[in-house]
UniProtKB/TrEMBL annotation:
Organism: Tumebacillus algifaecis
Entry keyword set: Membrane, Transmembrane, Transmembrane helix
Alphabetical list of PANTHER family matching this protein: TRNA THREONYLCARBAMOYLADENOSINE DEHYDRATASE (PTHR43267:SF1)
Protein name per the record: THIF-type NAD/FAD binding fold domain-containing protein
SUPFAM superfamilies for this protein: Activating enzymes of the ubiquitin-like proteins
GO terms for biological process, alphabetical: cyclic threonylcarbamoyladenosine biosynthetic process
Stretches assigned to the THIF-type NAD/FAD binding fold domain: 123-356
Alphabetical list of Pfam families matching this protein: ThiF
């Protein structure tokens, strides 16, 4: 909480570039630049304290302790930097506990660059701490995704999967150990999560998804569903999409080398099945083939390397942070982020299909 004092404490924003070269000492933030001369030890000493933060009186005192009367030279620059927004307020009123602030300080430093008149970094963080995210599937992708959610500080995580850990999973999973073999993945994941982040509420649902009805009872109060399961091929995407559409819960798919689209029910945003519906326009029998005759696809196992879920879950983590905190519009709204093993990635635009089998208004 704020200190309840009218002495304002500020510090130099972390995204301010500080350059020292010859006679010039330059501070740059976006398009604004302030040049201070002379560039000397007294100035360096002073700027170190601007970075650490404090009140103006504090800056004057610590600067003049070592370099008497030097503050008078720096004061006009300090006022100018303050006016241009180079400093941020250190004593913002907020609802986070001291423990939360301690754990997520560096993330809030990152979010501080997106502060607006209405929303500061503490508010972005509070939104994340108050969010509930359901992860469907905690195999390769889902286990990495869970570590992302823990790092981001999501307040309430629900993990749904009926599968058990196998030694052959460990080449690409996070969180699990050889001793976990034979145990339920969700139980091992919850044990890991509780140890790693006691600040987070984590729940396990040991269950497979065999249709949208398996998910619906678990969507109450969920802010975002992450689809990290890839079997049965296509059908799992369809079931998760249908359940979330019915319950009006936003959802994001993170499978294979792809993140997105981020679908928000009852919006003009494309859902994962819009793309599929466009394809069935072109190949009218595709739907029937996949839904009724494609069982052979479901049994196939594919090769996988740890780098895939590690990279892709990291990109999805940014999307989760964007969506839940609202600091910036997610990239995968009406788009998919795709990554190939040739190290290239691209963002492909998507359009909502007016007769989508999932999201069209019926
Ligand atoms: Zn759709």
């Amino acid at each position: 909480m704020g200190r309840g004092s009218d002495v304002k404490r500020v510090r130099l924003r972390e995204q301010v570039n500080v350059l020292s070269k010859g006679q010039h000492f330059v501070l740059r933030l976006n398009d604004e630049m302030v040049v201070i001369t002379p560039n000397n030890d007294a100035l360096h000493h002073c700027v170190k304290h601007w970075i650490a933060g404090g009140s103006e009186d504090h800056f004057r005192q610590v600067t003049e302790e070592q370099h008497p009367t030097s503050w008078d030279t720096f004061k006009p620059h300090f006022d100018r930097l303050l006016e241009l927004g180079f400093f941020e307020d250190m004593d913002v009123e907020h609802e986070l506990t001291a423990e939360e602030v301690g754990r997520w300080t560096r993330m809030m430093d990152y979010l501080s660059r997106y502060e607006t008149e209405e929303t500061n970094r503490y508010e972005y963080m509070r939104r994340i701490r108050h969010s509930k995210v359901l992860v469907v599937g905690v195999g390769g992708m889902g286990s990495w995704m869970t570590t992302q959610l823990l790092g981001l500080g999501i307040g309430h995580i629900v993990l749904l999967d009926g599968d058990h850990v196998e030694v052959s999973n460990l080449n690409r999973t996070a969180m699990y150990k050889p001793a976990d073999a034979g145990k339920l993945k969700v139980d091992c994941a919850v044990a890991y999560a509780k140890e790693f982040s006691p600040h987070t509420k984590v729940e396990a649902i040991p269950q497979f998804v065999t249709g949208p009805e398996d998910l619906l009872p678990h969507l109450d109060g969920v802010d975002l569903v992450l689809g990290c399961a890839d079997k049965p091929v296509f059908l799992i995407t369809k079931w998760i999409s249908e359940a979330c559409t019915q319950a009006k819960v936003p959802y994001l798919f993170t499978i294979g080398g792809q993140v997105g689209p981020l679908a928000v029910p009852d919006s003009d945003q494309a859902c994962p099945l819009c793309e599929f519906t466009f394809r069935t326009d072109k190949y009218p029998n595709l739907m029937d083939t996949i839904l009724n005759q494609g069982d052979f696809l479901f049994e196939r196992t594919v090769g996988s390397v740890v780098s895939f879920p590690a990279i892709v879950s990291g990109v999805a983590g940014f999307e989760v942070m964007r969506f839940l905190s609202g600091y910036e519009k997610p990239v995968t709204v009406n788009a998919c982020w795709k990554f190939d093993t040739n190290m290239e990635f691209r963002v492909e635009p998507l359009t909502k299909h007016p007769s989508c089998i999932n999201c069209a208004t019926k």
